[in-house]
Design goal:
Blueprint (H helix, E strand, L loop, with lengths): L1 E2 L5 H11 L3 H5 L9 E2 L5 E3 L3 E3 L5 H6 L2 E4 L11 H11 L3 E4 L4 H6 L7 E2 L6 H7 L4 E2 L5 E3 L3 E4 L4 H14 L1 H11 L27 H9 L7 H7 L4 H12 L3 H19 L4 H7 L5 H12 L3 H13 L1
Parallel strand pairs: 1-2, 5-6, 6-10, 7-8
Antiparallel strand pairs: 3-4, 9-10
Helix pairs in contact: 1-7, 7-8, 10-11, 12-13, 12-14, 12-15
Length: 314
């Protein structure tokens, strides 16, 4: 993670929390090695009136597998030498991740040319006008373009960091980490997803909270809006309207996302057949599971399972 004058403390804290060393013992797995890197040996001035003394220098950036670029108070505050460091890192195969307006640094390094990207909604128009070669999407939480990933503002940095954990360690570990951090485990699809609506958790005061918990516990059942409305003592139309207002999506899309997540965890942690997983996750048939899994995760269930079996073995 690269730090320099003007970086904002929220995203700094998010990245340190998600990729920090304390999770290795808790999850009993090989975790990330996080290096906070400065471009010079002097302390870095952080927004909010304090300083950070990075323990490492540019040499660590040159050898990192993933480089995280933080936002600054102004979009033009990143030092000029950052662009060359990022170009070299990407050329040797490193994964480059920008949080919030850190996307401007990636764009200046020409890493976003011909790609989709996002940044804080208030700066999307500026990013698009300044770098017309970049396809800027202002409506998503993050964009995954393989070795280049960008996030929207502030809280979306957490979504992107959890997405990286999900890619590297699987849905089960990402869900456990989210529970420790007290955030929704997944407000997005799998890799290469472009998310238009977040899926927030509902607190107990919400009228739909009990119904949502029931839905989560009964994903293998046939669930209709009419039945959910009856459980909530509402008409189907009122239920659908209130559900969208509370979660940002329809009951069908919410159920679909939850079922895909469950199938991911079962593929990672069990040896159940695809047919059995389809039944447990509410897709009924293997062909139905394969169709929705590919649409959301952009791969087949079997390929997904092989990927994480290989990662566990290694």
């Amino acid at each position: 993670m690269v730090v320099y004058d003007g970086i904002t403390p929220f995203e700094l804290g998010v990245a340190c929390d998600v990729f920090g060393p304390e999770w290795e013992a808790l999850f009993d797995t090989s975790w990330y090695r996080l290096y906070v890197c400065g471009l010079s040996p002097r302390p870095v001035n952080v927004e909010g009136g304090f300083q950070v003394l990075p323990a490492h220098g540019p040499d660590r950036i040159a050898s990192a597998d993933t480089v995280v670029v933080l936002p600054t108070i102004g979009v033009d505050q990143a030092p000029a030498e950052m662009t060359e460091l990022l170009r070299k890192a990407h050329a040797r195969g490193a994964r480059i991740v920008s949080l919030c307006t850190g996307a401007f640094v990636l764009a200046a390094a020409r890493l976003l040319d011909g790609r989709k990207a996002t940044t804080h909604w208030s700066e999307c128009a500026l990013l698009a006008s300044r770098y017309p070669e970049v396809t800027v999407d202002p409506d998503v939480l993050f964009v995954d373009q393989g070795t280049i990933l960008t996030s929207a503002g502030s809280a979306a940095s957490m979504d992107l960091c959890l997405h990286l954990v999900r890619q590297d360690h699987g849905a089960e570990i990402a869900t456990r980490l989210a529970r420790q951090l007290v955030v929704p485990p997944q407000r997005s699809g799998g890799q290469a997803q472009y998310i238009a609506t977040p899926l927030p958790a509902l607190d107990e005061s919400n009228l739909l909270a009990e119904t949502v918990v029931w839905m989560q516990e009964n994903l293998d059942q046939a669930i209709t809006v009419e039945a959910l409305a009856a459980r909530s003592a509402m008409s189907p139309r009122s239920f659908a309207r209130r559900f969208r207002a509370a979660t940002g999506t329809t009951p069908y899309q919410w159920l679909l996302r939850q079922r895909v997540q469950l199938s991911q965890r079962l593929l990672e942690t069990t040896d159940l057949s695809v047919e059995a997983i389809a039944e447990r996750s509410g897709f009924s048939t293997a062909s139905n599971l394969r169709k929705h899994f590919r649409r959301n995760v952009h791969t087949s269930p079997q390929s997904y399972r092989r990927t994480f079996q290989t990662r566990r073995a290694s």
